Hints:
Layout: E1 2-4, E2 34-40, E3 46-48, E4 53-63, E5 73-81, E6 90-93, E7 99-104, E8 107-117, E9 127-137, E10 143-156, E11 158-160, E12 163-165, E13 174-185, E14 190-193, E15 198-205, E16 212-218, E17 224-230, E18 235-241, E19 250-251, E20 255-257
Parallel strand pairs: 3-10
Antiparallel strand pairs: 1-6, 2-4, 4-8, 5-6, 5-9, 7-8, 9-10, 11-13, 12-13, 13-14, 13-17, 15-16, 15-18, 18-19, 18-20
Amino acid sequence: MRIRATAAAVSGALALSALAVPAAHAAPAAPNVTFSNMLVNGGKAITLGATSTVRVKATYTVTHPATVSLSGILTGPVLYRGKSAKYADTQVAGDDPGTCTKVDSTTANCRATLTIPARELYDSDAGTWKTGGVAVDRKTGADTWRTDLGTVPVRRAARLTADAAPEPVKKGRTITVTGRLTRADWPHGTWVAFGGQPVRLQFRKAGSGTYTTVKTFASSATGALRATVTAGADGSYRYRFSGTSTTSAVSAPGDHVDVR
């Protein structure tokens, strides 16, 4: 679940326990827990296509006083952008509370799943997100939020094509390799041109397992790619984009050319 530009309440199943506190009574004490070792998606970037819904695993450690029973507390990870996990402009929290395994009287190791639907994101949400944690008292609904437990990149997926022609071709003749670089447009569920980006044309000789870069140039405003090379040997051509802080790296499938 995602909350934007609000005083964020606990989301998903965690919210079920957030009971209203009567005004005439003092606010209940928040759970006395801390979070550490927060790891989301194994520390790897989260990449979403135009219509993706991605489920990523999170693991973390919860520490609490020996006098506090963790059985009465729901915990979960939070992904957010902003200064505070609780009051973030953009926030994703687990729809299900974490499952915790007791280590000793004050420590438990937990795991949970975060669900991120691309349709709920703006393209401007791509970039570095922070990780945090939230704990909720099952009985009172009082909550504790922890901020700045780590970071994780959230990126728009990229697509890349390559078509080498003519096929076959005589040795010494010109081969033209065309293609296009696009990336996910999350709000509209489509793929859009990604222009002005450095893209490498690469070649892998038949029988080799390695691509080498032939030339590097920028995609056009429409994402179009066009390069020419001289036919020398059988092999495959592809384009390679190294990615940015907001967009994933991608390689086009190789297109084989028979040189005669």
